[in-house]
Amino acid sequence: MITLDKRELLANLQTQLNDSLKLAISAANAARNDATHEQSKAETQYDSLGTEMSYLADGQNQRIVALKSELYELSQYSPIAGQFDQIQLGNLVCLEDSANEKHSYYFILPFCGGSKIETKQADVQIITPQSPLAKLLLGKYLDDEIITTFHTKTHYWITQID
């Protein structure tokens, strides 16, 4: 059984979000500069480079707002501690695939769904309560079996709840 530190996972997540924010800001600035550049001015009615670049800049700005929101939520979040029998929001859960005994780790958080945290011990997938997997997990107990039918029918055992 692997022990993962939730505070360390959250610190890694914050670093990832900050890196993504820097990249999004850089991309938005580049797209904004390209949209307003002299060579982006339409020469014919079919020349849409400037318009496309402005759409790209707008999309990057939306990504910046989302990342700042996630960073704020993360800064306000305190991980729950203790021993848990039943899965709830804030738990780190290990599932064992009954077919090949492969272990997968999931951190149920109210934000950053879809993010992945890579550590030396294991990769951890962030899922939100709205995700199909979290809906299956929430309220379950240690040693319970869950069956997913996302791609194929797979049986998992809940082997760890932190």
Largest sheet: 6 strands, mixed
Structural class: alpha+beta
Number of strands: 6
Task: Provide the domain count.
Answer: 2
Q: Helicity, in percent?
A: 40-55%
pLDDT below 50 for ≥5 consecutive residues: which ranges? none
Q: State the strand order across the main sheet.
A: 3-4-2-1-6-5
Distance between the termini: 11 Å
Q: How much of the residues is beta strand, in percent?
A: 15-25%
How many DSSP H or I helices? 3
What gross morphology would you assign? elongated
- What letter string, H or E per element, gives the SSE order? HHEEEEHEE
- Average residue-wise pLDDT: 89
| Rg over alpha carbons | 21 Å
Report on the architecture of this protein.
It is a single chain. With 162 residues, this protein is an alpha+beta fold. The protein has two domains: 6-76; 92-161, Transcription elongation factor, GreA/GreB, C-terminal domain (Chitinase A, domain 3), CATH 3.10.50.30. The protein has helices at residues 6-36, 49-76, 132-137, and strands at 92-97, 103-108, 116-118, 123-127, 145-148, 154-161. It has a six-stranded mixed sheet with strand order 3-4-2-1-6-5.
